[in-house]
Amino acid sequence: xxxxxxxxxxxxxxxxxxxxxxxxxxxxxxxxxxxxxxxxxxxxxxxxxxxxxxxxxxxxxxxxxxxxxxxxxxxxxxxxxxxxxxxxxxxxxxxxxxxxxxxxxxxxxxxxxxxxxxxxxxxxxxxxxxxxxxxxxxxxxxxxx
Amino acid sequence: xxxxxxxxxxxxxxxxxxxxxxxxxxxxxxxxxxxxxxxxxxxxxxxxxxxxxxxxxxxxxxxxxxxxxxxxxxxxxxxxxxxxxxxxxxxxxxxxxxxxxxxxxxxxxxxxxxxxxxxxxxxxxxxxxxxxxxxxxxxxxxxxx
DNA sequence: GTTGACCTTCCTATTGTGGGAAGGTGCAGG
DNA sequence: CCTGCACCTTCCCACAATAGGAAGGTCAAC
Lengths: 145, 145
Description:
Two copies of one chain form a homodimer. With 145 residues, chain A is mainly α. Chain A has a domain at 1-75: Multidrug-efflux Transporter Regulator, Chain: A, Domain 2, CATH 1.10.1660. Chain A contains seven helices and two strands. The first copy, chain A, has helices spanning 3-10, 14-22, 41-55, 60-71, 77-111, 121-126, 136-144, and strands at 30-31, 37-38. A two-stranded antiparallel ribbon of chain A has the order 1-2. Chain A starts with a helix and ends with a helix. Mean pLDDT of chain A is 88; it is low at 137-145. Chains A and B meet through helix 3, helix 4, helix 5 and helix 6 of A and helix 3, helix 4, helix 5 and helix 6 of B. The structure holds a DNA duplex (30 and 30 nucleotides).
């Protein structure tokens, strides 16, 4: 099967298929006499695996490790789970960070009256070093004296 | 003040200060006779503003818009809040996506016994097109027949 | 006057992905 | 047979933002 058909079936673009091949993530495809790449169901299955792991936010290096386990019939499920758990920890950390940012920003938005006046706690707070952030009112008041 | 001192005070690396200047995010710094960039407190304050907005996850283009409002004393706080709210919506959407991914992955991890056996629902699930995902047990069982 | 700590510009890499050019191949219709 | 069209190939460029380093200029202290 042509690369574009493999792309359609796997949900991985032709660009990405060639790229994955170029970085050695997936094995180089067989070539036909035309020099066209030729794919079978096995290869498509592998591409689907890659896409699904990518969808779950694994980096290409993590995908590489998972692919190795996928191919290894003697792998232990322990290894697979370890990788998945490491990625989960990663996701949790990033989400915690985003939650903190969201909380801080929501507080600022809440404090801003959002009308025609130029007075704005959001701008005021962002003008200060992080140390004093969140204390816009007092600090700005002091600055006016 | 030297660029490295401005970097230290603002928390923006010298690399980034020069980069921000090169893309026109911040105005080109004054130069001294040596051709060294020269910064004052005003410029440092602006860099702090940039760093703080970056810390809150605004893109450089968003920072550019916020900087314009920062400089404009006749801005309306409404405009500022609108930008902040748009960014919050963005953050919320991304977090929702991550939560969904986390949930799916946690379910898989939970289903994996994680011992010496090669049998692994994580791998099985990832081998399937998204449509059938999460139904690993049934699908794999059918496959074995 | 040399050493070391600055400064300058310019190039490279990263992580994934997309866009496009330039040229080859294959098939269908006129 | 020629033309057009839809593929395919490789190669280069772009993006977001940041970091690293080379090559060369400058300044201060010892």
